[in-house]
Amino acid sequence: MKKLTFGKIVKYIFIFFLVLFLVRILASTYSDTLVIRRDGVVVIELNGIISEADNIISIFKKFKDNVKVKGFILRINSPGGVIAPTQEIHRFIGAIEKPVYASIGTVGASGGYYAAVACDKIYALPGSITGSIGVIAELSNFKKLLDKLGVDVYNIKSGKYKDTGSPFRKMDKSEEKLFQEYVNEMYEQFVQDIKGSRNIDNATLAKYADGRIFTGNFAKSHGFIDSIGSYEDAFNDMKELLGIQELQMYKYKEKSNILKDFLVSTRSFATRFLLPDGFYFLLRL
User: Fold this and answer.
1) Residue 77: phi, psi to the nearest 5?
2) What does the domain layout of the chain look like in residue ranges?
3) Tens digit of pLDDT for each residue in 126-159?
4) What is the DSSP code (8-state) at residue 43?
């Protein structure tokens, strides 16, 4: 059996990203439209792992300045994702000068909840999964496997911590401390954004913002969401808020696109295992 050399590993990684690049070009040619003819509310979906912000933000941008669009409902089915894109979505939604309600479906946890707290009101079903307020850094180490394959890896670096988190060697205590500091800082940012958006007292946050998940009922009773209900309930409440009885609901739904789906899944893989600049870990919500 031939050994998997470091050169072959690099070759396979190069081929992977070449395919990813070509798929991105093909997927970028795809577009869809939603025609707004009467006053209405646009329902936008936030699904799956949050690995980038551009797509969801671009959808909001299509409609936020349309005078016939009176508000938005963000339907969330997401277990979370990477921190920076989630924060970008949170900040963009928070700056929209029209009512935005969040409706959590099956799951709106961690980064999904982070996006929800930027909205004016949060709805969830009794059995929806939400909460999971926390940050985690997951690291993989392949040193023992590479030793069995006879693969040596040499890191030529400019400073002690440049290859921190590398999967090719064991991490020392000082590096573990650095990662813990990163996690703590990101967690504090998460909590502060919740405090800025929700009327939740410090004692409740200190007790429950420990990574645990909540049901919709628990979240409602402790102030993490506003109402028990579906996106239809959110729409009816927004109709009452706006005082427009003939308000229409427009569901923005991207058409199924196999190339785009493949792009999302491969981007998630790349984010999970192949982050650039020496950070071979996933720091996520």
Assistant:
1) -135, 75
2) 37-284
3) 999 999 999 988 777 888 887 888 888 787 888 8
4) E
Give the closest residue to 229 by CA, choosing from 137, 153, 128.
128
* Cα gap 102→230, rounded to integer Å: 10
CATH of 37-284 among 3.90.226.10, 3.50.50.60, 3.60.15.10, 3.40.225.10: 3.90.226.10
> Is 197 designated active site?
no
Active site residue 221: no
**pTM greater than 0.85 (yes/no):** no
Catalytic option among 162, 177, 207, 251? 162
What DSSP string runs through 102-127?
EEEEEEEETHHHHHHTTSSEEEE-TT
Q: Look at 19-23, 162-166, 223-227 and tell me which has the smallest mean pLDDT.
A: 19-23
CB 123 within 8 A of CB 225: yes
Q: Evaluate whether 72 touches 95 at the Cβ level (below 8 Å).
A: no
Q: Which of 51, 78, 110, 132 is catalytic?
A: 110
- H helices of the chain, in order, are 6-27, 54-63, 83-94, 111-116, 143-149, 173-197, 202-208, 216-221, 231-242, 258-273
Three-class secondary structure of residue 275 per DSSP: coil
* Rounded Cα–Cα distance for residues 84 and 90 (Å): 10
**Other residues' Cβ atoms within 10 Å of the Cβ of residue 225:** 28
DSSP 256: P
